[in-house]
Amino acid sequence: MTASGVDTTMDLAGIRLGNPVLTASGTFGYGLELAPFLDLRRLGGIVTKSVSLEPRSGNLPQRIAETPAGMLNAIGLENVGVEAFLKEKLPALPEGVPVVASVFETEIERYARVCERLAADGRVAGVEINASCPHVKAGGIEFGQRPESLAELVRATRRASRLPLLLKLSPNVTSIAEMARVCEGEGADGISLINTLQALDVDVETRRPRLRNVLGGLSGPAIRPVALRCVFQAARAVAIPICGIGGIGSAEDAIKFLLCGASAVQVGTASYLNPMAAGEVADGIAAYAVRHGFARVRDLVGALELPG
Amino acid sequence: MTASGVDTTMDLAGIRLGNPVLTASGTFGYGLELAPFLDLRRLGGIVTKSVSLEPRSGNLPQRIAETPAGMLNAIGLENVGVEAFLKEKLPALPEGVPVVASVFETEIERYARVCERLAADGRVAGVEINASCPHVKAGGIEFGQRPESLAELVRATRRASRLPLLLKLSPNVTSIAEMARVCEGEGADGISLINTLQALDVDVETRRPRLRNVLGGLSGPAIRPVALRCVFQAARAVAIPICGIGGIGSAEDAIKFLLCGASAVQVGTASYLNPMAAGEVADGIAAYAVRHGFARVRDLVGALELPG
Amino acid sequence: MSDPRLPIRCDAEVVENRAESGPNRRLRLRVPGWPGSEPGQFVMLSPGARAAVERQDPLLPRPMAVYRSAPRDGGGEIEILFKTSGRGTALLAAARPGERVGVVGPLGRGFPEPPAGRPALLVGGGTGIASLHDLAARAAKRGPTRVLLGARTASDLMGEADFEALGVELRVATEDGSRGTRGRVTELLEEALAGAPRASVFACGPTPMMRRAAELAAARGSACFVSLENPMACGFGVCLGCAAPRAVGGFVLVCRDGPVFEAGEIDWERLA
Amino acid sequence: MSDPRLPIRCDAEVVENRAESGPNRRLRLRVPGWPGSEPGQFVMLSPGARAAVERQDPLLPRPMAVYRSAPRDGGGEIEILFKTSGRGTALLAAARPGERVGVVGPLGRGFPEPPAGRPALLVGGGTGIASLHDLAARAAKRGPTRVLLGARTASDLMGEADFEALGVELRVATEDGSRGTRGRVTELLEEALAGAPRASVFACGPTPMMRRAAELAAARGSACFVSLENPMACGFGVCLGCAAPRAVGGFVLVCRDGPVFEAGEIDWERLA
Ligand SMILES: Cc1cc2nc3c(=O)[nH]c(=O)nc-3n(C[C@H](O)[C@H](O)[C@H](O)COP(=O)(O)OP(=O)(O)OC[C@H]3O[C@@H](n4cnc5c(N)ncnc54)[C@H](O)[C@@H]3O)c2cc1C
Ligand SMILES: Cc1cc2nc3c(=O)[nH]c(=O)nc-3n(C[C@H](O)[C@H](O)[C@H](O)COP(=O)(O)OP(=O)(O)OC[C@H]3O[C@@H](n4cnc5c(N)ncnc54)[C@H](O)[C@@H]3O)c2cc1C
Ligand SMILES: Cc1cc2nc3c(=O)[nH]c(=O)nc-3n(C[C@H](O)[C@H](O)[C@H](O)COP(=O)(O)O)c2cc1C
Ligand SMILES: Cc1cc2nc3c(=O)[nH]c(=O)nc-3n(C[C@H](O)[C@H](O)[C@H](O)COP(=O)(O)O)c2cc1C
Ligand code: FES
Ligand code: FES
Q1: So what's the ipTM on this one?
Q2: Which residue of C has its CA nearest to A221?
């Protein structure tokens, strides 16, 4: 409920959210970094930076580059590791905001073990499996790019914990609908999409790639239309809830995703420009619902009218 | 050769170009529309709007929508048909500028028949097969999205004519390298990429898709980093020449594609903003070559320096 | 149809950019090599990115009618009346004198010559008013001319004083009655048609308004020409983005075959 | 290390924006709620899109040192000296008084207190000069302070007069000799170090310059602090985009752990 009297609550794959706006993994740190700017309890939830079994170091500079209406990154999945996450990061987050822990690994067994560790901590509301990382050399082709390996990954992480299980998919596939069906078939509770588009940029003066890693992930407003298409197609392919991600910086942007069938959204790159973005998006959605006569934000989900 | 004394000539899959800058199919009409703005002979070549066996009508409005640093389009297959193209459009183009005829159809046999018709006209310097079209028999999935149907398409069009054969690939695939290898394996002379990214946008006031066709193709600066990545990956996968396309509006943009391994480039959406864009890009490339001490623009192809 | 002149592409200099009324602004541009334009033709404007930054967003140029144009040393000066609504026009609204704006034009086919000696009824709604000024000037020389302007409210009206200055008969309607008669401009048209047999109607404005004007004219056996406003990417016939369905099937390109059409050519049902 | 104050995010108002020298400009911003900053801290600036248009391109905010800041009714006024080089700073250069610029800051950890009574040598190259003003002001109060400024050519220099006004000892070097001594500012540093045992060095500028300064200081056993300039997306430690390799392995975040570091912490080889 908000001051406006609109019901903003949402159920995402069994996770109860006060509003449908979460923060995207890797763009909000472990949550605390943005506390000076934003009352974290205004958020529907926080998806933390992907953690692996052991701490990992990242790529050498340059790790980021600006592109038209977007940015490239190749961080290299630098993270503190699941143990430090549970001991140091998680306890510091305020009660009352659901924390979804994002998980990344290079082998399926290790994915499962991270999930088991997370399941032991009551503060974790759900896990999001990062099945894609276009910019990590290790591994080569992504888990999320082959139906077989994706199925294996979902099965293993499903077995590893009873926590609500979100699968975060790569947009760098021929059929996002097929991948979504694989997740549903193997028992995932929901799907998050999209991760970054695999991309590259060049410095014509030095004639070198802008990123040390050569390839990177494209994010920001530039990819929003692709993300909306992926959500639209996935929502028609499966019955499990979808969390929309990609270039969301305003309430308008978020509402587009809800209309296309997303039950919730994540704000990513926009938090860099404005650390209060996620909170403003949440407020703006409620305002839109009032203006357009929706008593529950929930009713916006999938409300897109298709031409006859 | 240019005033600057730089050798700007390029060989693209057997097509001799005065400079490496062509116009992208569907963004330059049949060439004549831009004659008031630009001496067409300044162009390396013209790729004409895709034609089919019969004339075709297109989609109802809205057909286009603006997105962050890009645009969406769903024109439909609207074109005058190959006969009218050969009779009315082609003869009106000035001698001395290579014309690459773009072809699309919904069945492989029809693709082949269009190629046969084009081969009969000496004015056609080459064909570009637009593989981003729904394969009717394969239930609407694009020819360029499945290796098997792509292979069939290349084989049939290869047999249909001796003209230099360019395959224009869809970026909406899991592995662009795999698709490139299929084209090379079946005897294509070159590859053009990328076509538009499948995307969607929504009007939150009407709660309708912005395009009547719901889904559309994303083009413009927003997709340039994705296009560069595709060219980079394809260039490493095959030996046949590559024509780079995607968000090119300046000489700098074009040079990025050359450095990533493209032998030529196509200017698309940028021609809408500035009908003289392709000519300015061509001039700018020569100027860059002078400034950086390259005697031949050709020497820029694949000259990207990768970090050790 | 008037023959379109060969269009040019250039960087025009902002001479003046001032508030007109409500959200509307008046922009004067010095256009080197401007060949002149016919009533109803338009230009594609690229609001220069602030400073010398190449603009990538908003990406597309904005179609705008040539409100008025006059020859100036080796070129011309054109006037645009525009409504600040979205991102592109917001940039345009912020263009300062001396700054550059990309111009492509003149584009499209304008209005036909109003038949000599016969009454001409010009109907403009909202920003559509901007397409009618030069036509009114021409019509006034050829026969009895009445200009009917409509808007939601008084502050949305543009160019009213200029039309008065042309010495045409002017009527105004606003939906809230804040100026002229309360109601829709098409109601003024209905009256006017009743009193003017053999009149020709020239309309530009929101699609429903033009459609209604077409119906009224048809009922009276009057010719009716409309100027359509479809979204455009190029403005010169290459993107096929501006297609409008024809009554006989198929499509016309608003930027190339229009923006002015004989009302009967258009399939109004499928246009909206 | 000085403790960073809690940063804020707000729309600041442009008070003044004028040419400083060559490509450099001086921007004064009124920042509501500004908590003040330590020498060496920075802000992330989002050049407001012209008019009220939400800016999507160029997308990222630009990191800029707080050149000077002073309290103002309920907030503060901060001064930025910046070089117009690319698309973002071009937008910043065009921001008019009264317009808004997004500010996030103060960010990062600034320079340590110069040790009392001991000589302080401040070395600034190019835009790096802008990070040193408040440090120079503080150092001047604590001991003999010499400021060495370097640039390619005279017109690239910023803030020279302000440093003079601080009553510090000022030396200038330009590569073309158009101002001060001809050569690199690190040559001035070499001399200065020779004459000032137990001096501390504070450097900001191009990486090669800072690296050289670090070597020279190390050779003399002097402490050396550098302020790094890595590309940044967020500025407050969440994107991990600004990482710099540490001498002992792993990475530091320039925005959060720096931008100021003890020169020995950095793996200069792998940084460039
Ligand atoms: C032939 C023609 C002549 C026109 N003459 C005038 C004029 O003289 N004065 C005036 O104020 N307006 C005129 N318009 C409408 C004008 O083009 C739009 O108001 C303008 O493009 C809106 O841009 P924006 O950035 O404010 O809106 P945004 O919402 O940012 O525009 C987004 C996209 O939609 C397109 N678009 C939005 N509204 C319209 C519209 N009504 N018609 C066409 N495209 C639209 C834009 O061009 C852009 O591509 C004309 C349109 C056409 C087709
Ligand atoms: C902590 C810190 C303090 C700084 N203080 C100042 C200052 O006081 N005055 C000043 O003139 N400059 C300063 N800089 C450098 C300034 O951030 C860049 O000059 C500016 O970002 C260039 O933006 P642009 O739009 O002109 O260039 P573009 O080429 O358009 O920038 C493209 C991208 O690269 C980044 N980038 C380009 N050059 C640099 C650079 N040298 N350092 C970091 N990022 C860069 C931009 O931020 C942007 O993300 C500082 C940098 C840092 C990290
Ligand atoms: C710098 C950066 C780091 C990221 N790190 C992660 C990560 O660790 N795990 C993950 O699942 N996604 C990561 N992402 C992807 C985002 O969560 C999000 O899916 C993507 O950026 C698209 O959303 P946006 O356009 O709103 O940023 C990262 C994105 C950026 C820009
Ligand atoms: C309106 C429009 C129509 C297009 N029509 C075609 C077409 O008929 N055949 C084709 O192969 N590509 C077509 N394209 C794709 C372009 O040729 C090009 O591959 C794509 O737009 C990416 O390049 P760009 O970003 O420079 O526009 C079209 C693109 C646009 C925007
Ligand atoms: S606007 Fe491009 S064809 Fe009409
Ligand atoms: S700039 Fe984002 S972590 Fe330092």
Answers
A1: 0.96
A2: C57
